[in-house]
């Protein structure tokens, strides 16, 4: 079983007992956190897709530690001008472990699509057909 979930503005494919590095979360180390923006769940071949998110689905995780990622070097150069800039940073990250994926409810997309199809067919039956008026002919005048 796996899910695609949005965590701190990024989407991750997660499964149970998976350790993931995400952008720094405000939660304390050792605390539990729940993510509600679950976009897709695959339960042994049974795929549920949300529109945009699945109602009632959530992913529970535990914050293991806060740390800094590897150094990223930014080097800028303009050739033949003598311009060189070297800069870098280390991203603030949180390591979390996924404890469980819960699914509750049917996907919204299937229901909303069916309603939309029925609405368009009703409008087509109710709307009268309008015939186009014939084009006006140019009168031939000789002067």
TrEMBL record:
* Keyword set includes Ribosomal protein: yes
Alphabetically list the UniProt keywords: Ribonucleoprotein, Ribosomal protein, RNA-binding, rRNA-binding
Q: Which InterPro entries match?
A: bL21-like, bL21-like_sf, Ribosomal_bL21, Ribosomal_bL21_CS
Is this entry keyworded Ribonucleoprotein?
yes
Where is it found, in Gene Ontology cellular component terms? ribosome
Q: Pfam families given for it?
A: Ribosomal_L21p (PF00829)
Give the residue ranges for region: Disordered.
Answer: 114-143
Function of the protein: This protein binds to 23S rRNA in the presence of protein L20.
Q: How does it assemble?
A: Part of the 50S ribosomal subunit. Contacts protein L20.
Return the similarity comment. Belongs to the bacterial ribosomal protein bL21 family.
Protein name listed in UniProt? Large ribosomal subunit protein bL21
The organism is: Flavobacterium granuli
Which gene name does the record give? rplU
